[in-house]
Amino acid sequence: MTFHKLLIANRGEIACRIIKTAHEMGISCVAVYTEADSNSPFVRMADQAIKLSDSYLNGGEIINAAKQTGAEAIHPGYGFLSENAKFARAVQKEGLIWVGPSSRVITSMGDKLKAKDIAEKAGVPTLPMTTDPKKANTIGYPILIKAAAGGGGKGMRIVEDKKDLKEAIAGAQREANTGFGDDRVFIERYVASSRHIEIQILGDSHGNVVHLGERECSIQRRHQKIIEESPSPRVDSEMRATMGEAAIKLAKKLKYESAGTVEFLVDDKTGEFWFLEVNTRLQVEHPVTEEVTGKDLVYEQLRIARGEELGYSQDDITWEGSSIEARLYAEDPSNDFLPATGTLIAYESDSNIDARWDTGIEQGSVVGTDFDPMLAKVITKAKTRTDAANKLALALESLHIGGVTTNRDFLVASLRTKDFLKGKTTSDFIEKTNPQRAVILKGTSLENASSAAALWIQGQNRENANILKEIPTGWRNSRLPRQKISFNYLDEDVDVTYQSNRDGSFRVNDGTNAKIIEWTPLGIDIEVNNSRFFSKVTRDNDNVVVHGPWGDALFKILPRFTLPGSEQQAGGLVAPMPGKVIDLKVKVGSKVKKGDTLVILEAMKMEHQVKASEDGKVTKVLIKKDDQLENGALLMVVDS
Fold first, then answer.
1. Which of 559, 570, 618, 574 has its CA nearest to residue 592?
2. Residues 386 and 258 in one domain
3. Is the pLDDT of residue 73 over 80?
4. Are 280 and 101 in contact (CB under 8 A)?
5. Coil, strand, or helix at residue 314?
């Protein structure tokens, strides 16, 4: 059952990840892509690429692409069609090899209600639940509404009070239908201070099943994971063995083949655990397991798909060190983690820091609303958990990135909190610890960054000069004003004035002394008031991204003469992100109270509510249902 050519029915970083291992095995790779991904790295990494007419959900077109290119096998990655039993059956019906568990297993585990029933029959504990909203009281608030046909945070709502139940169910159903084509939801007990612990399993077609230990994925926002690690600081060897045995028991009952994950919810105080679901695919966080076990999970998937035996038993599995992964997202932590869009002006990791970057983007990549906003997974490994956390924070901090708002600063702050380093990583970590959401430069840091930007630009101007190139910048033979450049930084104007001295240094602003040690097109080595640092600098038209000890700062060069612009309308409510209007709750004349939901937007297959910031009356409505909006678009006017 060998194969020599593999089609990857996915995109982005996971497509790059699969291609890398497949190439190491001597397997040729075929990519499929849509128009939005025409310039993506994974398309160039593949040996062949076929353009799809519409989306990554068109199973028939993907199968045709495999047959057209002579690919004998299909790897679905994660998301999209990875847990679609109908697609898995269609692949095998066409005589192609499906890299994953059987369609029978996908069907039984893809429906969370059926999965719970099977787990209970296998003797694995489950949480109290119901499909009847009228019985929610019997579970006790707070409760959690979940989509029956999918995961990834889609179709999920926490409900604290009975009065919010109806609206929460409606929202969860809409989101579930959009994400999975199935609006069924169920209600489950919500455990506030809990941990999400998942067990990685591998099974072959010969009846062998092993587990590769646990991953902890408790730190989440919007019910989606952002930091994962292995091993868990909460799990000891006895607990690992007990949960591993439960996972293997369930896997054997299912006759599970390929890689999979059995997810559990753990009460942090008692250590009691309950079955949540089985993910019948590769997980986003699989690298941390690879780092501590030395097992390449994509390699194992491909071997199993070829019909090979695992070739090792549970006793052969060992764990070494600690590994932590952070998901770098295009999103704004300061604005309730809403997704962000834009073009990556700068994107360069520091090769001197020992970190693994699983990414599918590059400098110049456009981050739109078509796909999940994850930019990269950054993974570190060390002998101790503290060292792994410190390495990961440093790797993220050293990333030169700009043009799109990201959660980088929030991740760094989270990894360096006392709670994280002590292992207090329960599901309410963000609410309890409240890590810094973003780095905002002020005082000396802002002066250093803006000075570096200004002096790098003057160096660029000298480099590009066609005449009098050797004359020092700012040279004059009469008394003229000092040179000046004005930036906009986070909606604040920052002026930098500078004048060259006879010794080649510069007098910046009100007397700050700055000396350029070295200027290159890629950055500037500079000393400001005896403080020396190197700044990577990337310019894109009027935008300049400056990286230094403070992180990254995006400066917009302001024109010397500003034309009058449009005035903001008083009381105007604007879109916090690009998206589609799926529900409009008010009309002209409606009276609203602070916190009322006025508009529901959909972006990246998730719903986002726009709420009233104060009591008032709606005097203008400038949108309608199904409108596609840009970020910052005026929605309506609410007079207080």
1. 618
2. yes
3. yes
4. yes
5. helix
Give me the torsion for CA of 235, 237, 243, 244, rounded to 10°. Answer: 130
Checking DSSP bridges between strand 224-230 and strand 346-348, what pairing results, if any?
unpaired
Percent of the chain at pLDDT exceeding 70? 95
> Does 562 map to a domain?
no
Q: What is the pLDDT of residues 336-353, one digit of tens each?
A: 999 999 999 999 999 999
Structure tokens belonging to residue 518: 């070295």
Any domain includes 567: no
Whether residues 515 and 612 fall in one domain: no
Residue 497 pLDDT > 90: yes
Q: Which amino acid is at 241?
A: A
| Residue 386 to residue 401: CA distance in whole angstroms | 25
* 508 and 591 inside one domain: no
Q: Residue 511: which region, alpha, beta or left (left: phi > 0; alpha: psi -120 to 50)?
A: left
Whether residue 567 is predicted with pLDDT greater than 50 in this model: the reply is no
Task: Note the pLDDT of residue 148.
Answer: 85
Q: Give the domain extent around 11.
A: 5-99
- Give this prediction's pTM: 0.86
- 281 a catalytic residue: yes
The answer, yes or no, to whether residue 640 has pLDDT greater than 90, is no
Pair 463, 421 in one domain: no
**For residue 406, is it left (φ>0), alpha (ψ between -120 and 50) or beta?**
beta
Domain boundary among 141, 168, 189: 189
- Beta strands 342-343; 366-367: pairing state: antiparallel
CA 427/CA 219 separation, integer angstroms: 5
Q: If residue 512 lies in a helix (H) or strand (E), which one and from where to where?
A: strand 512-520
DSSP code per residue over 554-568 = EEEEPPSSPPP-PPP
Whether pLDDT at 508 is above 90? yes
Q: Which residue of the set 11, 221, 240, 281 is catalytic?
A: 281
Lowest mean pLDDT, pick from 156-170, 373-387, 501-515, 592-606: 592-606
Q: Which pLDDT value is given to residue 565? A: 43
Domain presence at residue 608: yes
Q: Quick one: 184 and 198 in the same domain? A: no
- pLDDT higher for 467 or 527? 527
Euclidean distance between CA atoms 257 and 422, whole angstroms = 37
CATH of the domain at 55: 3.40.50.20
Which stretches of 220-356 are DSSP H helices?
Answer: 237-254, 286-293, 297-305
Q: What one-letter code names the amino acid at 638?
A: V
Query: How far is residue 126's CA from residue 26's CA, in Å, rounded to a whole number?
Result: 43
The stretches of 434-519 forming alpha helices (DSSP H) are 443-464
